[in-house]
Structure formats: C-alpha cells, structure tokens
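Renewal narrative, Specific Aim 1. Our central claim is that a sequence can be written position by position from structural information alone. The example that follows is taken directly from our test logs and has not been curated for this report. It begins with the structure tokens describing the chain, in the order in which they were read.
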C-alpha cells in the first residue's frame, strides 16, 4: 500500500533520527530525487521535469520552506504559472494558484526572493495527495513549524485576494487598520500508536461509536471514520463544529458505500472517533 511505503519519522523533533530522511531543503528529502534549486525570478526552468509530481518553494537561503505543492499535469508548467503570478505587479487572485497571493505578499513586504525545486512522483491523484500531506507533516516535524504559505498562512500586514470572478484583489492593510494576531504553528503531531488506536499520534481519542448515535463531543475536534471493527481508516477530518460535520460525514459515507460494497459485500455500520 502506497502510504505504508512512506518513511515513518521518529517521535522526536529536530533530532538526528527525525532528520534521517534529510532536511526539507535537501536533494533527497523524503526519499525523493529533487531537482537543484532554481531561482523563481530569472531562473532556467528547463531543468524542471515535465511530468506529475511535487514541488517546493523557499526563500533564498532559508531552511524553512515557503510552500509545498503537487500537480498531476506538468511540474514545469505549474511552477512557470506560479512564477508569473507571484512576481506580478499587483497581488494575484486566489486562482488558479492559491499560494501566489501569499508569496507575493511576503515578497512585497519583506523583499523575499524565492527559488523552487521539484520531484517526479506518482500519477495517481490520491497517492500524490497523500505524499504532499506527508511532506507537509515531515516539514513540521523537522522544522517545528509549518511551511510559510501552506495551510492558509498569510502575511499579517496584508489582506488576501479572492478568486478572479470577484475582482477583489488584496494588498497592504490600510494605515491604522486592524491587523490579525500572529499565527503560530502548534507543536507537530508525532508518529505513535496505530491509526485506530486510542492514543494515535499522541492524541486522546474518544471510544469508537456508531454514526447512528448522538456524538458525546461537540465543538472543535478532529475526527476519523472506519467500518466497524476494521483496522484501516476511511477518512480523517477536522471541524469547528463536530455535530454539523457528523451529517456531512454521513453524506461522504453514502457516496463511498457502493465502492465499499464492491470490496466487502456486508460491510456493517460505520464508526466515528474524535479527539
């Protein structure tokens, strides 16, 4: 199974063990063959591969990455488009590249210069997305914080552009205007336990309960779904309001039921666990 082939990082941050798979800026990080770093502005992109894969962007000279992404089309084209938008005169819209406004804001405010690197990877979307998630987690374990522009992180002195059809571009917050509070990365979750265990990733999970029954937890939470008694998870999610997300989870499971029945004719009921 693809996910099981990914390296399992140590349950220690910034230790020799946790760096066994390389630093996020290394040419073999995560067991991948990354290209050399290419300047985003004025760099020769012909060295970038033209297949599906993952890519990373960093501020020149920094160990922390600015962005980690994936594409199923063409890495060279994807990074060329990112360059064109991130280096534009005005803050770009939030589409087609969601990272471009954030990279633009940091460059505009702090004078950041960027360089990029890419690695060919699986053409299967679900597996490539899993690899991207793993790299985001591995970065947090190695650096103790998220990449600068992933997970919605944005420069605190700027507002973000919306999508193109709204026509609303972001820019510097007006003088005297309200500034959002600083966003600090919480401590990364560390690999421990089994995915269906009560202590998985160092969290305290509720006992597994049927989705047919009311939830014992409300408010902000992580949740995971499985077929009753199974050792593999169907879904992992988060919600600011778990009670509302329960209904959404049921919708997801109804969509998956036909696919599940193909593999397991009598799958039983679904269970949810929260942390």
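The sequence written for that structure reads:
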């Amino acid at each position: 199974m693809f996910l099981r082939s990914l390296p399992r990082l140590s349950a220690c941050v910034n230790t020799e063990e946790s760096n066994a798979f390389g630093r996020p800026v290394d040419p073999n990080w995560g067991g991948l063959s990354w290209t050399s770093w290419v300047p985003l502005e004025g760099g020769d992109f012909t060295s970038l591969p033209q297949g599906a894969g993952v890519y990373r962007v960093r501020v020149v000279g920094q160990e922390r990455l600015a962005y980690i992404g994936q594409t199923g089309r063409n890495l060279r084209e994807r990074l060329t488009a990112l360059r064109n938008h991130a280096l534009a005169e005005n803050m770009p819209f939030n589409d087609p590249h969601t990272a471009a406004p954030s990279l633009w804001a940091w460059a505009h405010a702090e004078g950041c210069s960027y360089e990029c690197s890419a690695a060919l990877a699986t053409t299967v979307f679900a597996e490539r997305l899993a690899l991207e998630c793993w790299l985001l987690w591995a970065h947090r374990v190695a650096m103790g914080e998220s990449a600068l522009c992933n997970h919605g992180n944005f420069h605190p002195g700027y507002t973000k552009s919306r999508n193109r059809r709204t026509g609303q571009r972001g820019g510097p917050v007006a003088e005297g205007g309200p500034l959002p509070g600083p966003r600090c990365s919480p401590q990364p979750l560390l690999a421990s336990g089994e995915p269906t265990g009560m202590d998985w990733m160092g969290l305290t999970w509720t006992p597994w309960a049927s989705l047919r029954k009311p939830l014992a937890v409300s408010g902000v939470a992580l949740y995971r779904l499985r077929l009753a008694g199974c050792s593999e998870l169907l879904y992992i999610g988060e919600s600011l309001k778990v009670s509302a997300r329960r209904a959404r989870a049921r919708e997801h499971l109804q969509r998956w039921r036909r696919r599940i029945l193909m593999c397991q004719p009598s799958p039983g009921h679904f269970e949810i666990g929260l942390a």
